[in-house]
Amino acid sequence: MSKIAVIGDRDSILMFRATGVEVFPVEGAEEAERLLRSLAGEGYVCIFLTENLVSDLKPLLEEFAARPLPALSFIPTGAGSLGLAREKLKHIVEKAVGADILFQEGAGNSE
Description:
The protein is of the alpha/beta class. 35% of the residues lie in helices and 20% in strands. It is built from four helices and four strands; from the N terminus they run βαβαβαβα.
């Protein structure tokens, strides 16, 4: 069975326990980096990180981007979204189809 983890501040991630994924609260980026490296070595296939950790882990996340697994995804904290998950999805779609078809200005307007 594939293993899925969530890393972030306690208040933002504890609710994920109800979904059956493993939850790993951290106090800061240094602890998150150690934990991310450890979980990747333990065969986790998907790891969610709260957006507040992303800027401090940027070099490590770029290192992991070259690997097929684990898949990393960003989730907002309890304080709200920084838009990083949306920006990452936009970049992936642009790379795949050569254009911004999801979030281009005016998309979805019926006028």
